[in-house]
Amino acid sequence: MVYNCVVLIKQVPDTKRITGKAMNDDGTVNRSALPAIFNPEDLNALELALQIKDKFGGKITVITMGLPAAGAILRDSLFRSADDAILITDQRCAASDTLATSYILSCAVRKIGDFDIVLCGRQAIDGDTAQVGPQLAEKLGIPQITYVEELIELNGKTITARRNIGAGWQQVRTKLPALLTVTADANESRVAAAKKMMKYKNARTPIEVEQKIKAENAEAAEADIQKLVKHKCEELKEKGLLIKQWDLDFVGADLDWCGRSGSPTKVHRIQSVVLAAKESKNVEPNDQGISDMIHELIEDKIIA
Ligand code: FAD
Fold first, then answer.
1. Which atom, in ligand 1's list, is nearest to the CA of 131?
2. Residue whose CA is closest, atom 41 of ligand 1?
3. Which strand ranges, in their side-by-side order, compose the sheet holding 84-88?
4. Degrees (nearest 5) of the Cα angle 134, 137, 142?
5. pLDDT digits 0-9 by tens, 5-31
6. 132 touches ligand 1 (CB under 6 Å)
7. Which residue has its alpha carbon closest to ligand 1 atom 53?
8. What are the pLDDT digits (tens) for 231-250?
């Protein structure tokens, strides 16, 4: 039996390589100081899908919802041997919280239809909620195994995986279709394949094509720009290099559940927390030193 996998991937700011002031004065993220990367655990989710495909066969479709720049991680997925890539981009997605995001993603996964396993990263390094995977499974009405650190077995329509539960692990078996959220411990993601890079380096979404043509023809009339865009997209499609781009109408989303109207989360206050080392203390590397330190922490009510 072959398994068709859908992998949800997100482009995130690289919080480890900050090249300037990370926060603006108004408390919003200064995205220009943070290079955009493939969310790390989404690479583990993609790798798990690739391992399933290597062993059993099937098709891997990656989906991202984001800005036009997210086309970069779709290309990266194609370089790593994903079969199909879809960008969901639509101004009406703006201000979506995790509930609206997972609703829109569920519409896209339903649109694909023919899937056995949906894979997400455990958590995105920017939003950090780890809510989208579980919410997506709920909305699709399929079982979920979260915090997957090892795929134990795929046998017909049954999947068994080991999940991390903090102080230990749990082995869980469920029926397919199912959704997994994958941790960094599950695998080491493979590097891009040189042949695929050569094949897909010019793959573009329609919105990327439009942005480039607009930048190169700043003075041109809108109608002429659209003609050029149409022509270039047809050319790319013939070569198998046009990345799919879907909007909310195409995935059949109810607009009341998207963007601001579909987002019950309200942000009351944003606080920038800067951790600074105030004082340090040397602890003698022996039992007495450690015992003294523990007593001090208990007295200061830092630990109980
Ligand atoms: P997690 O739940 O930690 O992600 C888990 C996994 O889900 C990921 O590893 C990935 O596999 C999958 N996943 C998550 N997000 C996506 C995605 N977009 N595409 C594909 N797969 C995904 N963000 C904006 O970009 N623009 C906004 O205008 C905006 N407005 C917001 C307004 C509010 C009130 C709130 C609360 C959030 C807003 N966000 C906005 C952030 C947005 O809601 C989150 O980025 C998004 O819901 C994902 O949540 P997370 O980052 O915690 O992902």
1. 2
2. 97
3. 169-175, 158-164, 144-155, 178-182, 117-121, 5-8, 60-65, 84-88, 244-246
4. 140
5. 999 999 999 877 777 777 777 666 777
6. yes
7. 124
8. 999 999 999 999 999 999 99
E strand or H helix that includes residue 234? helix 222-238
Mean pLDDT for the chain overall: 94
- Burial classification of residue 201, based on how many CB atoms lie within 10 Å of its CB (0-12 exposed, 13-18 middle, 19 or more buried): exposed
DSSP 15-74: TTS--S-SB-TTSSB-GGGS-EEE-HHHHHHHHHHHHHHHHH---EEEEEES-GGGHHHH
Measuring from atom 20 of ligand 1, which residue has the nearest CA? 64
Tell me the β-bridge partners of 185: none
Q: Is 147:134 a contact under the CB 8 Å cutoff?
A: no
Higher pLDDT, 144 or 27: 144
Separation in Å, CA 133 to CA 9, 45, 99, 139, 177: 11, 11, 10, 10, 14
Nearest by Cα to 63 from 79, 80, 42, 48: 42
In order, the DSSP letters of 107-157 are: HHHHHH---SEEEEES--TTT----HHHHHHHHHT--EEEEEEEEEEEETT
190, 80 Cβ separation under 8 angstroms: yes
Tracing tokens 């993220």 back to the chain, one arrives at 29
| Residues 122, 158 contacting (CB under 8 angstroms) | no
C-beta atoms surrounding 230 within 10 Å: 13
Q: At residue 136, does pLDDT exceed 80? A: yes
Give the H/E segment covering residue 295.
Answer: helix 287-299
CA of 65 to the centre of ligand 1 (A): 9
Residue nearest to atom 31 of ligand 1 (CA): 95
Give residue-wise pLDDT tens across range 43-99. 999 999 999 999 999 999 999 999 999 999 999 999 999 999 999 999 999 999 999
